[in-house]
Every structure is written in C-alpha cells, then in structure tokens.
Amino acid sequence: MTNDIASELAKLHELRGAEYSRQVEAIAMRKEFHSLETDKDIYTTGGEKSDDYQNLLIAARKAVEFGYRVFILPNPLRTRTPDFILEKKGTFRAYDLKTVFGKGSVGTNLLDSIGQCNRILLNMQSVYSTRILLSDIKRYFDTNKDATEVLIFKGLKRISIHRFIFDNPSYYRLFKKMYEK
C-alpha cells in the first residue's frame, strides 16, 4: 500500500470522529512539509505555482495572525481534499478555503465544497449582507449533515459558527452581534 500524501489525504473521506482527527494530525506531521522562509508558521509541500496559491497564502497569513500554525495541503488531481490544516494548542483541523470577493457567492461556494471537507474557512474580502450570509450558512448545514463548522475571517475578526447555533431561536441576533460588532 502506498503512503504518499495524496493517499493519506484520500483516507479522510473514509474516517470519522477520533480516527479522522488522528489522520489530520498525522498528515500535518509528515516530513514533506517545510515552513516558508517568509512565514515560519506556514508550512507547505510546494504548489506555489497553483492558481489558488495566492488566495491560500493570504488566508494562511490571516490564520497565523489568529494564532494558528497553517499547513497548506497539496491538491492531488484524483481526489477532493481540504486546502488547509490549521493547528492551535495541539488541535488539528482540516478546512476547505472559500475566498469571498462577490456579494452573492457564499451560498454557491459552500455547496460546492460538500464532499471535500466538513469544515469551511470563509475569508471575507468584500462587504456581505449579514442576513444573506447566515441564510447561506444555514442552508449549507441543512444540506450537508457532515458539516461541523464554518470559520469566518472578516477583517480583524475570527468567527466560528457550528451547526448547533441554529438550535437557538435567537440565532440571527447572536450571529449579527458577532459578525457586525
């Protein structure tokens, strides 16, 4: 059996719970990763010529500002994989990055990520309606039963939205307070 990083990433689609978490950490600890000369807390295996690399790097630098170590994952052609592993205080989590430039793109981006990863990082690069954003996130959680978190980077804010927020009847007010403050 092959032990290359692509096959290790592919295993993420088969695992759940603690096994999934252990696999994410094992991938981040692989010797292929090296820190960037310019950013000691950002690790990569190459891929600097990828079309998405600049967006990945911008979001990675923002994650470092929030206290994460960032592992930019390769993009093997034969399987859908996360873009990042973010580590903070010994907890490793895999995320699919969606950079938001337009005013109506979040819903489509979230739905496109289904099957790639159970956590999404939205790097907000534009002004976006709070009500529409929350509606898009709710639809994403309703559509994707495996989804666990949508992490939002907006300016100097880091907002983590878990599916259980929608169990609270005041979820819109709670989200608006976090997103607009």
Please state how the strands of the largest beta sheet are arranged side by side: 1-2-3-4-5-6-7-8
Q: What's the total helix number?
A: 6
Order of helices and strands: HHEEHEEEHEHEEH
Portion in strands:
15-25%
Shape: globular
Helix content percent band? 25-40%
Overall pLDDT confidence: 90
Point out poorly predicted stretches. Answer: none
Describe the structure.
The protein is of the alpha/beta class and 181 residues long. The chain is 34% helix and 23% strand. The chain contains 6 helices and 8 strands. It has helices spanning 5-10, 17-28, 53-65, 106-112, 130-143, 171-180, and strands at 34-35, 42-44, 69-72, 84-88, 91-100, 119-124, 149-154, 157-162. The protein has an 8-stranded mixed sheet, with helices on both faces. Strand 5, helix 4 and strand 6 form a beta-alpha-beta unit. The longest helix is centred in the last third of the chain and has 14 residues, at 130-143. 31% of the residues are buried.
Question: What's the quick description here?
Answer:
The chain is α/β, with parallel strands linked by helices.
Task: Map the helices and strands.
Elements: H1 5-10, H2 17-28, E1 34-35, E2 42-44, H3 53-65, E3 69-72, E4 84-88, E5 91-100, H4 106-112, E6 119-124, H5 130-143, E7 149-154, E8 157-162, H6 171-180
Parallel strand pairs: 2-3, 5-6, 6-7
Antiparallel strand pairs: 1-2, 3-4, 4-5, 7-8
Helix pairs in contact: 4-5
